[in-house]
């Protein structure tokens, strides 16, 4: 008993858990909830990168290991309740834009990811990323938080089948004759009722209840096996390093630039949004932001060596934050469950998108509260903020939403006679986003 108390006391002091008004139990529950909400990446990432010709088993292992590395670094170095894993947007760009559309072999494309990761890490060491994040106006930071909230709610509505693609109107309401849709609806009501009653761990309880309902009704298939050894990492390990000679092709540097910029602002926007939700922000700045960015950079570098696309801070961390996660111990718990997942991977199949959808929708509601702090009465601030908020879900991309705000903010502030309030970094970011949109063929050439 004394050893247990000593261990818990050591954990409490190391992560300042009591000091932040939390407990080991609450942090552990938050970590489990975050893991359950993002565990889908273990199966989605191999599927997407498999379309590029990569070995799915190796990608599964690389995904888990990079998530373990990133979450441990974020928890221990920065003491943030934010998990890291390979980003969905980056893997889609890697496969469908670089490998398939541009005709670049996946081995060469992985060399581009590795180079971008090295540059990313150097920028973090030089504190360039930290300087940029601190220079972003407070109103745009609030807009990022709200935009991410709407974005993840949209992801949840889509994953749950409540919103579907529509040829005439882009999106439309889903069919309520599909049985699995009712799993999401059930989960939303369970979580919402528990939240209204202020029950601790409402989101996690809702996830468990929805999973059990799915298993009981047969809408979710029970796994055939419980334990499965992790696949070998050999087919993808260090492939990028052995193909660095392709970087003599100028086309590859365009790929590196895009990976670098997208990863930079995806993570920056997500970190800011989650920090706002967790109450970490102080005086418009994130304490220990340098350590957080370094954790993100090193995990991206590690992932590139193991054979996966860039890692990113996960918006699903908001699910754990919503139930009380406030310290890095939450992220460490996430890493622990990713480690377990490598052995018990068959069990993860019961946590379907319909199960996690309800949590994402409810968490989106919590994050959108940041809208109240934006100066909507000042149009030069209102329009850029609005574009950030709607840009993320409507383009299905966090970086594009940020780009819309950064492209308009300096111009409108100048038009309003407030040019002196716009720092040089914001003007530099305007140029950077113009270049990014040009490279992505969004702007005319």
Automatic annotation (TrEMBL):
> Entry's InterPro entries?
Azg-like (IPR045018), Azg-like_bact_archaea (IPR026033), NCS2 (IPR006043)
Keyword Transmembrane helix found: yes
Q: Which superkingdom does the taxonomy of this entry point to? A: Bacteria
Tell me, in one coarse class, where this protein mainly resides.
membrane
Q: Where are the transmembrane segments?
A: 28-45, 57-77, 84-104, 110-128, 140-164, 170-194, 201-220, 252-274, 321-340, 347-371, 383-412, 424-443
Can you name a GO cellular component term? plasma membrane
The UniProt keyword set, sorted, is: Cell membrane, Membrane, Transmembrane, Transmembrane helix, Transport
Membrane-related topology note: Multi-pass membrane protein
| UniProt GO MF annotations | purine nucleobase transmembrane transporter activity
Which family is this protein grouped under? Belongs to the nucleobase:cation symporter-2 (NCS2) (TC 2.A.40) family. Azg-like subfamily.
According to UniProt, the name of this protein is Transport protein
- Species: Limosilactobacillus frumenti DSM 13145
